Amino acid sequence: xxxxxxxxxxxxxxxxxxxSSKTVNVGSGGLLGTEKFQFGxxxxxxxxxxRYGQEVWFAYGAIAGISGASANGIAISHWFETGKxxxxxxxxxxxxxxxxxxxxxxxxxxxGKQISxxxxxxxxxxxxxxxxxxxxxxxxxxxxxxxSLEKDDxxxxxxxxxxxxxxxxxxx
Length: 172
Prior knowledge:
The protein has one helix and twelve strands. It is mainly beta. The chain has a single domain, classed as Sandwich (Immunoglobulin-like), CATH 2.60.40.
C-alpha cells in the first residue's frame, strides 16, 4: 500500500491537469483540506493564460529520485508573450530531516549555469511538495531540473541532489 500511494497521487495529479482549473479534496472525506491546480489548456490552437497572455514556449519533464532517494513528480515551465517565465514543481518525496529543506534548481546544460527556484513547500505536512517560480527573464534554455537536500545553514551553494528531470519542449 505504501508503494502505491505515490503512484496514486501522481495519477491523480495527471488526471487533474486535464482541465483548466480543478479543486480536489484530499484526505479522507476532504478532512485535510483542498488543493487547486490551474493549468493553461489549448483553446483554438493557442494557450492563453488570463494573467500572462499567450504561451509561446512550454516544456515538461518527469521528476525521478536519484542517489537512493524515492521521489516522483512533474516539472513544468512556460514562457509567455508578456515576458514572464513560470516554472512549477509538484513532487512526492519524504519530509526532509529536521534542520533541512528541499530546494529547486534550473540548469542550462550548455553553460552549466544554475539558478535556484526556491524552497519546496509541503502545505499538508506530508510527501507532497511544490513550488512556483516566476522570472522576467527567458529561462527556456534551462532545461535541467534538480531538487537538492539542503542544510538550513545559510550556504547558497547547491547541496546533495536527490531528484532530477529533463524538460522537453512541446509544441501546443
